[in-house]
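Table S2 (continued). Query chain:
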Amino acid sequence: MTILTKALLITLVTLFSVSTIQAQKIFSVDYSSQADIKVYVVKYESQCDLKVYKVDYESQASSDGNWFFVNYSSQADKKIYFVDYESQADLKVYFVKYSSQAGWKNSSKKHLLY
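Corresponding output:
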């Protein structure tokens, strides 16, 4: 590999890493038309696409379902709307009690948050 190729590879990996971490800053909107993703909260873990843990600090957010809810839509990487019915949802989530439990159960839906 040339030095230029290595530098390009390092730059791409760094940009990808930063964007995946930031993709977990979430803002909950009031209307479905404002949302990037429509989310339904399921009752049982076995029904979800993503197990989510709500973190207290932005620095704790990660690409594996640790969501940080921001106060303003301009701070968010993704705006979500919580729907009333499963059939309306793009993504089904289950909120877990511990950060270590968070993660994808249906990896085909990952593109929704990136």
